[in-house]
Structures are given as C-alpha cells and as structure tokens.
Structure to design on (487 residues):
C-alpha cells in the first residue's frame, strides 16, 4: 500500500479535486479489474475510451481517478486528478508505486523491427551462464531467473511491466533484458524507466497500420534513444540505413556494430553454414551455433552489450559460442528421408527475405525450397502482397496459408497476399487456407534434401481466430507430418 501523494513524482498534474493524502492499494487501467482502494487511470485507446468507465471504476471501489478530462460530477470520497496525458502518468505512477525497480537493476532495452527477441533472449542466456541472476521481458516469455511467466505482449503495459520488474528486483536479479516494441514506446509503456543500456537492431517495413508512415515509425523508435540518460550506453547497427539517425540526439554514450565498416564492434563472416557461423569479432575468431548473416548482426549487438556491461571479452565469446537461438527462430529438424524443416518467426518482408536468402546460401546443390507462409489479421495489410512476392521469388514452391486471422476473414487476407504475385510467381504458388493442410502439402511435395520453411508463427502455440486461441504449433505439426512419411 502507498499514499497517492507519494506516487505522483514526475506526474504533470493539471488539476486536483480532493485530497491526495489517501491510501492506494493498486493501479488499474482496466475498469473491469478495479478493486476497493485502487486508482483507476482512464486511457484513450484505439478501440475505446477509458473515460467512459470512470463511474464503473468508482462503483467497484476506486479511491482515486486519473483522467485527461474531468467528469461532469464527482463522487463523494473519491479524488480526481487531471493530467495532460494519462498514458504518461500511469507509467510514472507505476514506477513510483513499485519502488522504482529500474533503478535497482541493470536494465537493457532492445528495439528494432526484427531481432529483438533473439537479442534479448541470448543476452539473458549469456548473463545467466556468466553467473548472474537475470530477468527477461520478451515476446516468447518473461523470466524471473529460471521462473517462466507467460507473456501476453512483446512489452507489457506500464502497470504489469513495473510489477514484473519489481518481482525481478525482489528475486535478486541484477540484469534485465527487455524488448521495447514500437507500440510500447509510443504508448508510454516504458516511460520513466531508467535504462543502463539500449540496443537498436534494424528498421524495415512493419506496423504501418498503427504508425501510418515509415517516418513516424522511425521517429517513435528514435524517441527511445533520445530519452536515455547520459550515463547509459546506446548501441546501434551502422549497416542499417537508419542506424546513425537513431543515435543522433541521444545523450547516452554511443557505440556501433558493423559487418561492413569500421566500428566499435566489428564482425566478419568467415563461413555461414547449417552448422553455424564461423566469424571474427574484433579480430577474435569464434564459431557460433546461430545461422545466417542476420544472426551475425544479432551476435555483434549482444557482444557489444556484454562489453558495455563490463564483461570480459574472451569469457563472453566462449559462452556465446555454445548458445542456441530463441525458440522458433530458424528452428530446424531433419526427417528420416532427409527433408529439412525450418520453423521461423519471419512475419515481416525483411525477415522473410533474410531467412530465405540464408536458406539459399546454405543449399549445396539443386535442392528445392518450399515455403509455407501466411499473414496476420488486424495488422499491417500493406506487407501482405510483399511477403507473398518475396516468398515466391526466393522459393521453388510457395504455399500461401492462414496465420492468425484474428477478426479478419482469412480468405480475404489470402487474397491480399495473392495480389503480390506476378504470373511467374503464380505458377509456383498455391493457396491452402487450412495451415495444417498447407504444411502437409509442403511435406508431400518435398524430396530428400529439399528444404521446407514454415514462416510467421515461430514459437506460437496457437492460432487466433475471432478472439479464440486454438491450439496450433508449426513445429509439432511439421514433426507429425515427417513421422507420417516414415509409416
Ligand atoms: C493497438 C494496441 O497496441 N493496443 C493496446 C492498447 O489497447 P487499446 O489502446 O486499443 O485499448 P482499448 O481497448 O481502446 O481501451 C482503452 C482503455 O480502456 C480500458 N477499458 C476498456 C473496456 C472496459 O470495459 N473498461 C476499460 O477500462 C482499457 O483497459 C484501456 O486501458 O493498450 C492495451 C493495454 O496496454 C494493450 O493490451 C493493447 O494491446 C493489444 C491487445 C494488441 O494487440 N497490441 C499489439 C498490436 C501490440 O502491442 N504489439 C506489440 C508488439 C508489436 C511488434 O511485434 O513489434 C507488443 O508490445 O506486444
Ligand atoms: N537482425 C535481424 N535482421 C533481420 N531479420 C532478423 C534479425 N533477427 C531475426 N530476424 C528474423 O526475424 C524473425 C523474428 O525475429 P525476432 O523474434 O528476434 O524479432 P522481434 O523483433 O522480436 O519480433 P517481434 O516484433 O514480433 O517481437 C526471425 O525469425 C528471423 O526470421
Ligand atoms: N508481435 C507481432 C507478432 C506477429 C506474429 C504473426 N504470427 C501475426 O500474427 O501477425 C505483431 O503483433 O505484429
Ligand atoms: Mg519479439
């Protein structure tokens, strides 16, 4: 329990109705979760406006309301605080309520279109192996030391996030590695947190449904670096077109990694094979179990962060060379008939292109590449035709299928994808709506040594249709189809 007046540090109050000398049990942004003694913060969202639920929150026992527009009447015994931006206010209040957890840990944030989960997860594994108790906040799962806490978002809302960081502090974690999605930055989910360091992977086409323009998407990601403190480190990808712009205005100490230019953390690929990457990092030669050029970039970002966090470079490279990637990222298996199956979370045009380019480079001869791919519903529609054409261009056969249709008609999503196919691509492509059937068909089309890529869902264990998550696991289904071949 805390006093309301004690959790308002940094909150820009416009007006107050009532006394802030009251006890607060918890903070809620969803009226349906309000319990007696809570503060309810009204947020204007994409779908609804939290201000419409202020009365409901009061009925459920809220002792304080934080809003952008004061209601026309006030309930007795309830304090009303008006602020300019409730998204920002709830972030500061949550940080204060949970005793400023980010000040008590080394918090490293990772942003970029692709690679966040890979980088954050491997940093978590690396620092755990180096002997530290660590926290992880990621798309796949959150972790407090070895304890796994299911993730609902890539970056949780400010209240849940600060509660989670508090739990990490209580459990004795010294380092926390966290993905910072562009939605989270834009919605102030990470506002008020003190970052020891921040990493940028890359920025390519995604989420234009939400950010509207690519420039706005860049601006949002950059604002994360602009907001760092002077004692933090910021590490960026020099080979990405926006790599330097990202750090242009940051007060943090700047570092760059690169495969192509002179940089603080300079890598060179010596060999890129299915068995892993042989490369040099700052002139030290190491073999890694991760596959593909894009993972060479991820490894450089990870190495850079470890050095900035004060670890010994030989020790870091020794541990890093034994680590595997995050679940569902270039996850591969081989059937009894020697067909190679790869499950990968590529759900953007750039990720798909990188994964397929990597597969092409790994081929020894004329093996066919068969890609199964779909696009998510209620998300950026403009990436659909591009993903279909990329898949067709870089594969011998393509099976377009369903991903998470969410509230959209899956057939309409398929149609959007098909529009990206030119006549040559159409000859390589078939559409099979049922994802399990699509995977089965890919397996039936494959000969020994051929490579099947199942893209888009990676670690996901469900298919979301109309608000219901039906059990679905690309890896399990691919394995099942491989086993059927043996019978
Ligand atoms: C588009 C988006 O980001 N939406 C997020 C946003 O919800 P919203 O603004 O749409 O909320 P809303 O439904 O309009 O409601 C507004 C407010 O009214 C409240 N409310 C609503 C109903 C009610 O009865 N009572 C009530 O109080 C809601 O709790 C909310 O506070 O804020 C919510 C609380 O933080 C999030 O759960 C929600 O994530 C939705 C579920 C989502 O799908 N988000 C995805 C796009 C997302 O965030 N993805 C990124 C990763 C993207 C990447 O790959 O990079 C992530 O970080 O996970
Ligand atoms: N550095 C990289 N550059 C380009 N593509 C990458 C990179 N790292 C991974 N990928 C590709 O992107 C996919 C997603 O990777 P990852 O899950 O690490 O990204 P993410 O940024 O966490 O994604 P999300 O936005 O969904 O959280 C991988 O499965 C791989 O295909
Ligand atoms: N974090 C990503 C996940 C995309 C995964 C893909 N399977 C889909 O459903 O589109 C997003 O919210 O856009
Ligand atoms: Mg992620």
């Amino acid at each position: 329990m805390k006093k309301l007046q004690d959790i308002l540090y940094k909150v820009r109050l416009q007006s107050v109705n009532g006394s802030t000398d009251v006890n607060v049990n918890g903070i809620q942004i969803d009226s349906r979760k309000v319990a007696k003694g809570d503060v309810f913060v009204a947020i204007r969202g994409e779908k609804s406006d939290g201000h419409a639920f202020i009365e409901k929150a009061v009925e459920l026992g809220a002792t304080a309301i934080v809003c952008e527009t004061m209601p026309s009447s006030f309930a007795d015994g309830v304090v009303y605080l008006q602020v300019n931006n409730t998204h920002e206010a709830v972030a500061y209040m949550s940080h204060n309520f949970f005793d400023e957890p980010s000040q008590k840990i080394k918090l490293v944030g990772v942003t970029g279109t692709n690679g966040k989960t890979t980088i954050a997860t491997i940093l978590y594994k690396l620092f755990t192996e180096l002997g530290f108790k660590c926290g992880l906040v990621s798309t796949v799962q959150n972790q407090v030391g070895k304890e796994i806490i299911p993730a609902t978002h890539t970056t949780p809302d400010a209240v849940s996030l600060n509660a989670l960081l508090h739990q990490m502090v209580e459990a004795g974690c010294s380092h926390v590695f966290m993905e910072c999605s562009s939605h989270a930055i834009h919605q102030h989910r990470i506002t008020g947190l003190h970052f020891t360091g921040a990493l940028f992977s890359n920025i390519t086409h995604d989420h234009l449904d939400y950010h509207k323009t690519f420039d706005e998407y860049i601006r949002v990601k950059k604002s994360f670096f602009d907001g760092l403190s002077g004692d933090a480190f910021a590490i960026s990808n020099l080979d990405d077109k926006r790599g330097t712009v990202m750090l242009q205005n940051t007060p943090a100490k700047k570092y760059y990694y690169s495969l192509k230019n002179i940089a603080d953390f300079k890598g060179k690929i010596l060999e890129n094979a299915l068995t892993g990457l042989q490369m040099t990092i700052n002139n030290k030669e190491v073999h890694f179990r991760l596959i593909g050029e894009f993972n060479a970039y991820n490894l450089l970002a990870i190495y850079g962060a470890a050095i900035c966090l004060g670890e010994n470079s030989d020790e870091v490279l020794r541990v890093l060379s034994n680590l595997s990637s995050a679940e569902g990222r270039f996850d591969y298996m081989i059937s009894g008939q020697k067909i190679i199956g790869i499950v990968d979370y590529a759900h953007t045009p750039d990720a798909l292109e990188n994964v397929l380019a990597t597969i092409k480079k790994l081929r020894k001869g004329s093996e066919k590449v068969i890609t199964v791919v779909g696009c998510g519903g209620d998300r950026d529609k403009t990436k659909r035709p591009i993903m279909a054409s990329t898949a067709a261009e870089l594969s011998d056969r393509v099976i377009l299928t369903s991903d998470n249709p969410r509230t959209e008609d899956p057939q309409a999503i398929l149609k959007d994808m098909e529009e990206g196919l030119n006549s040559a691509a159409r000859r390589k492509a078939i559409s099979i709506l049922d994802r399990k059937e699509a995977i089965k068909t890919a397996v039936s089309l494959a000969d020994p040594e051929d490579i099947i890529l199942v893209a888009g869902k990676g670690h996901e264990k469900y298919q979301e249709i109309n608000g219901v998550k039906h059990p679905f696991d690309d890896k399990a289904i691919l394995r099942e189809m491989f086993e059927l071949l043996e019978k």
